[in-house]
Amino acid sequence: MTNWLREHQAHPYPNDDEKEMFLNRTKLTINQINYWFTNARRRLLPKWELKQRLEKEEFAKHDSGSNQSSAVS
C-alpha cells in the first residue's frame, strides 16, 4: 500500500476497485485499509513532501552555485 501511495501522491485516495485489490492482497478489513490510508495521508505524505521540497532546494543551491562559478571562469 505504501508503494501505491507513493505513486499516487497527487491524489492519495484509492477507489473501490483498488481497495478491493488491497483487501485480497493484505487480508485486512475494509476499515483497516481505510484507517491505514487516513493515517498515511496524515503521517507519511507530509514527510515525503518535506523531503521533496528540501531536495529541490538543495538541487537549486547546487545548480545556482555551478552557474555562478561557470560565469566567473
Explain the layout of strands and helices.
Elements: H1 2-7, H2 16-26, H3 30-72
What helical percentage do the residues reach? Answer: over 70%
Q: Any idea how many domains?
A: 1
CATH topology: Arc Repressor Mutant, subunit A
Q: Any idea what the radius of gyration is?
A: 19 Å
Strand coverage percent: under 5%
Return residue spans where pLDDT drops below 50 for at least 5 consecutive residues: none
End-to-end Cα distance = 50 Å
Major β-sheet profile: none
The helix/strand series, from N terminus to C terminus, equals HHH
The residue-averaged pLDDT reads 89
Q: In CATH's first tier, which class applies?
A: Mainly Alpha
Tell me the CATH superfamily: Homeodomain-like
Tell me the overall shape.
Answer: elongated
- Treating each run of at least 4 consecutive H or I residues as one helix, how many helices? 3
Task: Quickly give the structural class.
Answer: mainly alpha
- The tally of beta strands, per DSSP, is 0
Structure in words:
There is one protein chain. This protein is mainly α and 73 residues long. It is elongated and about 50 Å long. The protein has a single domain, classed as Arc Repressor Mutant, subunit A (Orthogonal Bundle), CATH 1.10.10.60. The termini are far apart. It is 82% helix and 0% strand. The model has no long low-confidence stretch (mean pLDDT 89). It is built from 3 helices and no strands.
